[in-house]
Design a protein that fits this description.
8-stranded mixed beta sheet; binds flavin-adenine dinucleotide; flavoprotein; ubiquinone; FAD-bd; monooxygenase activity; UbiH/COQ6
């Protein structure tokens, strides 16, 4: 009979949240297993379709866990300024200079960060990487969690962390409820080469056909995220490269001149997911397993990094025997709840206010945007929201 493999912590899911948590546990005495179902695939040449606005606090965290300094700096774009447009000409802008910071965010490809974290965690002495491997059953009893894998191995640990994305298997096994609000929208992403320089500016347009964002990428490139009603999103995905480039250039007021597609469009369904309880005895959730948010905030991945930072700090200070203790884990839950709820509510409210299907709100939202631009308190609150 096979003996159980024993660990202090088992992390399921090697996305950015799971990898960051493992890397953050590097300086602890804890033994960690990382279980990932799919071996990673990195884009060969070209640009990754998925691009993030990494907040200054996420960049600091990535630095503390040893990843940031190793990222290829030629693929990192500081974002110095944001310009936001309403659907009736209202405008709001703010810059890093205005608020006395070096940059509002760093624009980076998902695979740039994931690859660095993956390579680091692979070499990390206290992490056993099990990939490809998938869990088949989870039981928590007498202060220990047992995770049976599909390949017949069993992992025994004080704590199992679900970092396995929005359809989290761990969350379902632990009986933690997830409430979904479907936006009936697609997030359509693509990258373009631009005729005019972006000077580190991001643009966002609240349009009748969705929210369109241009994020600056290095070397005269730009990443588009268009959160569009499903029918519009499907149409965008069907365009050939030339039609898409012309359409996106026109939708963005030709701000960057002529565009040329360098990464074809890809689409993702958009929804809000709220998880009222993100811990149970012997189980904790981080990243998209614990929350999903509309991409108009640009904060999904930042929330996942903050979860990893908070949970790793808690675990580092606990005795081995109580790592899965519900009272201890509730501290992590409480510390994260405020930020996650506030960001989810603000982003949801913004989305509802600018919902393309509600033209009656057009006056209110454009007036709101103009007022926000003029009232420093509100403006600063919005900047803090943008900085994460
Ligand atoms: C269109 C779109 C645009 C976005 N834009 C932004 C943006 O601009 N800024 C931003 O911050 N965020 C953005 N996001 C959100 C961001 O992509 C996510 O927040 C982030 O990728 C979540 O990371 P994660 O590690 O929690 O989950 P995931 O990246 O989903 O990783 C989960 C991992 O778990 C593995 N896994 C799943 N199930 C199992 C299992 N049963 N067994 C073993 N392994 C398993 C998966 O293979 C995967 O590797 C966007 C999302 C979308 C859809």
């Amino acid at each position: 009979m096979q003996r159980d493999l024993e660990f202090d912590v088992v992390v399921v899911g090697a996305g950015l949240a799971g990898l960051a948590l493992c890397a953050a546990l590097r300086r602890t005495q804890l033994s960690v297993a990382l279980v990932e179902g799919r071996p990673p695939e990195w884009p060969v040449g070209g640009w990754d379709a998925r691009v993030y606005a990494v907040s200054p606090s996420s960049a600091r965290f990535l630095d503390q866990i040893g990843a940031w300094a190793h990222l290829d700096s030629t693929r990192l774009q500081p974002m110095a300024r944001i310009e936001v447009f309403g659907d009736r000409g209202a405008q709001l802008d703010f810059s890093a200079f205005d608020v006395g910071v070096g940059e509002l965010a760093w624009i980076a490809e998902s695979s740039l960060i994931a690859r660095e974290l993956w390579e680091g965690v692979k070499r990390q002495a206290n992490v056993t990487l099990l990939c490809p491997a998938k869990p088949a059953a989870l039981a928590v009893e007498g202060g220990r969690a047992r995770l049976a894998l599909e390949d017949g191995r069993t992992l025994d640990a004080a704590l199992v962390v679900g970092a396995d994305g929005v359809q989290s298997w761990v969350r379902a096994q632990a009986g933690l409820e997830a409430r979904f609000t479907d936006y009936a929208e697609l997030g359509v992403v693509a990258n373009f080469r631009c005729e005019r320089p972006h000077l580190g500016t991001a643009w966002q347009w609240f349009r009748p056909d969705g929210v369109l964002a241009y994020l600056p990428l290095p070397d005269g490139h730009m990443s588009m995220v268009w959160s569009a009603p499903e029918a519009v999103g499907r149409e965008l995905l069907q365009y050939d490269a030339e039609t898409l480039a012309a359409h996106v250039a026109a939708a963005g007021d030709h701000m960057l001149g002529r565009l040329e597609v360098v990464t074809p469009a890809a689409g993702f369904p958009l929804r809000l997911m709220q998880v009222p309880r993100v811990v149970a005895s012997g189980v904790a959730l981080i990243g998209d397993a614990a929350h999903a948010i509309h991409p108009l905030s640009g904060h999904g991945v930042n929330l996942g990094f903050a979860d990893a930072r908070e949970l790793s700090a808690l675990l580092a200070g606990l005795d081995r025997g109580v790592l899965g203790d519900l009272r201890a884990l509730r501290r992590y839950e409480r510390r994260r709840a405020e930020e996650v709820n506030a960001l989810q509510l603000t982003t949801h409210a913004l989305h509802e206010l600018f919902r393309p299907q509600w033209p009656a709100l057009s006056w209110l939202r454009n007036t709101g945007l103009k007022l926000t631009a003029r009232v420093p308190v509100v403006r600063n609150a919005l900047v803090r929201y943008a900085l994460g």
